[in-house]
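Hi, here's the filled form for the chain we discussed.

Project: internal
Contact: R.S.
Residues: 199
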Amino acid sequence: MGDTESQVAGGKVLWHFTMSLDGFVAGPNRAMDWMAGISSRPGLVEEYIETTGAVLGGRDGWNAAGDSRPYGGAWHGPIFVLTHHPEDAMPADGVTFLTCGPAEAVRIGLAAAGGKNLEVLSPTIGSQLLELGLIDEIDLHIAPILLGDGIRLYDNPGCAPVRLHRVGEGDPVAVVNVRYRPTAPAKRSAESSPGAAAE
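And the returned structure, exactly as it came back:
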């Protein structure tokens, strides 16, 4: 399977993340150091800088990121942070703290995006918007790493399965096949290694 088609600025609500193969978008305590050394195809970051009109995130993510901006500071535009407690939030240029519901936050974000896409950079808010039918696309970049712990993209125990259609050519409900090898060889005991004498 090749890469997806280039993203376009179509006024969409994108739930957008780089995700580990086992479904985590951040490590424990929202750590992001696991992304070091992971590459993307040439021009991908520039593609999202060009097509993103506004960003919607949550308070936990904002606190973890500090006042850093998406795409290493190369993207400039309005950021909206949904929070129950805006009074103790650290202000920053271009950042608006919202106390409304997620649907209203999307309305505000799309209006500010000026016809470009609204990127949702929060697992919690993305889940809520998915339930409300307000996510146009889930845009994932699957990184070749297994984290084993952290913040999941979608963590909603007890909910009904959410069926998805893959965007692009081909069967929209076909399984996506990926194949990786560990960078270090698997450790095997002497008893299980080929050629070990049987007792």
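Let me know if anything looks off before we file it.
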